[in-house]
Design goal:
alpha/beta; Helicase, Ruva Protein, domain 3; OB fold (Dihydrolipoamide Acetyltransferase, E2P); Purple Acid Phosphatase, chain A, domain 2; six-stranded mixed beta sheet; 15 helices; 21% strand; globular
Length: 520
């Protein structure tokens, strides 16, 4: 490339406000040399791409790596111009994140920002880990609430500054105070039969909702030291995009951070993935011949469709009996997994074009019933993997990143357990649908399982893997209760029902977030 072209590139870069390093200039000229006769157009395209990357650049000084990144994005755009009517390549379309690989973040109350935990996390935590579990949950919702316009402190004091304002008061500050106050706390049972509302400073008595949930209440402190509650509710939700702006590029989901340009490109690819479908089954009892026959019916049906599903999700339990200390049929269950593998392998199109994800249930084989649960033991799945080498065995819960969408899968009979743990019946003013109450609870709590640890044990150091913050696009619950779907504040939530009991399953199209409640 002649000297005049080098000067032209340097001049164009200075006009756009960039300073080129020598290796970056050489890389640009090398890229332009691929397009003989159209070098100037190629350079303009590359500089336009650098302009798009401007927000993610740390400096106006451009190095070789930055140019290579822009070149890669340009070439990927060209390579992604595929037929929109065809299904996408599932290997690049989605990523499965195991619960034990989800990054952990802690909130710094002084700097008002999150920082990532470094180092390994022990399964058997120290005693301080249990206190940290509650503190981290509380701070997560507290920082979210502080940005709500109704609960934030007015920036300027004036005659009307407190009109419509519900500023949160620390519980410790209520001592000796009169009049109504708003407080936020965790409902806990410090003494048998007596419920308290705790924050990071003190505790007061209350008697609403279920133990372990975090609530915002309005009330008045009585002379007896009891806080009389007048209004009680969950902390308000925050829009997903607003949460993402505050997180400063932190990856809470575990799917990796994306630049603005990469997000736009993936969104375009996602729009073209109109035929991608997930088929989700829960309670697939492999020890029951009837259940296997129904699985084969579903596989036969999807084998013959024009575009096969991208992903099949099989959620436990995989046995009709709990795999506890009294269970002695592990070799038989291993053979049943192998039989399922043979069945899938017999459907050539599904085996070659679809992926298969297996998530354990609450009564499946494993070290304990504590959450999160690790993947199914290799002993049980070896025979299946011989037939389906690309089968994925993940934890419960687990997360799936589909292009830009974040999807959470959780197999647990939550509705029955939450209703049993309620301190009082839920209000039916807005809805009498118990599933909608469940969805509202877990989304407002930003947690998949806000039950007391005595009801559902959780590994203290991995409680963050059950967070729903920022709110995901889709929450898939595997619950034995009736099959349901509910769109709540833009979040798609649905329950698959029990496949072995009710013959129900769900076909989900992530591109349009369309839920098809199905049954045999």
């Amino acid at each position: 490339m002649n000297a005049s072209m080098r000067k032209k590139v340097q001049r164009n870069c200075k006009i756009r406000g960039y300073n080129l390093k020598v290796d970056a200039l050489d890389e640009i000229l090398s890229f332009a040399s691929r397009f003989e006769g159209n070098e100037e157009e190629a350079i303009d395209l590359l500089l336009d791409k650098l302009d798009e990357l401007e927000n993610s650049l740390k400096s106006t000084i451009i190095d070789k790596d930055t140019v290579n990144r822009a070149v890669s994005l340009l070439l990927e755009v060209v390579g992604d111009d595929s037929d929109p009517g065809e299904g996408t390549g599932t290997s690049s379309a989605f990523r499965v994140i195991d619960a034990f690989h989800v990054p952990k973040f802690k909130y710094d109350t002084i700097r008002k920002q999150f920082y990532e935990h470094t180092g390994s996390l022990s399964i058997h935590g120290e005693a301080s880990g249990k206190a940290a579990l509650y503190r981290d949950r509380f701070l997560l919702l507290s920082q979210r609430l502080s940005r709500d316009q109704h609960f934030s402190k007015p920036a300027f004091e004036s005659e009307f500054s407190h009109f419509g304002s519900c500023e949160i008061s620390p519980i410790q500050s209520l001592v000796g105070q009169t009049g109504r106050r708003w407080v936020m706390g965790v409902i806990s049972q410090l003494e048998d039969g007596h419920y308290y509302l705790e924050d990071l400073t003190a505790a007061i008595t209350t008697g609403l909702f279920s133990e372990n949930t975090i609530v915002v209440v309005e009330g008045e402190m009585l002379l007896e030291g009891i806080f009389q509650v007048l209004t009680c509710g969950f902390p308000p939700l925050e829009d997903r995009n607003k949460s993402l702006k505050v997180l400063s590029g932190h990856d809470f989901f575990g799917g990796g951070t994306l630049t603005k340009e990469e997000t736009i490109r993936l969104e375009e690819m996602e729009k073209r993935a109109v035929n991608d479908m997930f088929v989700i089954l829960s309670d697939v009892w492999l020890d029951k011949e009837e259940a296997l026959t129904k699985v084969e019916t579903i596989l036969d049906g999807f084998e013959s469709v024009e575009v096969v599903p991208s992903l099949f999700v099989f959620m436990g339990n995989f046995c009709s009996r709990p795999c506890n200390l009294s269970f002695h049929s592990y070799s038989s269950l291993r053979m049943q997994f192998g039989k399922l593998g043979e069945m899938i392998a017999a459907h050539t199109r599904l085996k070659e074009q679809s992926r298969f994800l297996f998530i354990p249930g609450p009564d499946d084989a494993g070290p304990s019933t504590v959450l999160p649960r690790c993947a199914l033991p290799k002993y049980l799945t070896e025979e299946l993997q011989k037939h389906i080498p690309n089968a994925i065995f993940s934890s419960n819960p687990c997360r799936v990143k589909f292009y830009t969408q974040e999807i959470v899968f959780f197999r647990q009979d939550m509705l029955h357990r939450m209703r049993r743990s309620c301190l009082m019946s839920p209000s039916i003013e807005e809805t009498d649908d118990h599933f909608q109450h469940l969805v509202a609870t877990i989304t407002h709590q930003s947690h998949l399982c806000p039950l007391p640890l005595t009801v559902q044990p959780i590994i203290w150091n991995y409680d963050h893997s059950l967070y729903l913050y920022p709110t995901p696009h889709t929450i898939v619950l595997g619950d034995r209760s009736a099959q349901k779907a509910f769109k709540y504040t833009g979040i798609t939530c649905f329950n698959t029902g029990s496949f072995s009991i009710d013959s129900t399953f769900v076909a989900y199209r992530p591109c349009s977030q369309e839920v098809e409640l199905s049954a045999l």
